Amino acid sequence: MIHNISRSLAKRWAARGVIKESDVELYQYGLELIISTGVNIFIMVGISSAFSRPFIVVPYLLGFIPLRLFAGGYHAKSHLFCVLFNTAVYSVSCLIAL
Whole-model pTM? Predict the structure, then answer.
């Protein structure tokens, strides 16, 4: 779904002359990353709110992002599994932090 949304948006931008036709795949990939990250953060804020600690997501991300950038990690085969895995890991982290 995220793949289809980003492809559609990139093609629409190319049709309107916002980007070059040759850059559609590049923008599609970037949009996939942005949308996927946005969905994950939105879900994490929702989980934090459910635990009545909406701002606990900030220190989690401050620790998680550098770790993920430099240490690598698990790569899911689809965006759905990525979101589900991230949701599970974050939920467990919130439970431990309580």
Answer: 0.81
Position 68 pLDDT exceeds 90: no
Question: How many alpha carbons fall within 13 Å on the CB side of residue 33?
Answer: 6
H-assigned helices in 16-78: 24-50, 57-71
As a three-state string, the secondary structure of 23-36 is HHHHHHHHHHHHHH
Token couple for 58: 């900030």
Q: How many CB atoms lie within 10 A of CB 73?
A: 10
Q: Is 98 helix (H, G, I), strand (E, B) or coil?
A: coil
Side-chain half-sphere exposure of 51, counting CA atoms within 13 A: 19
H or E element at residue 78: none
Between CA 98 and CA 93 the distance in angstroms is 9
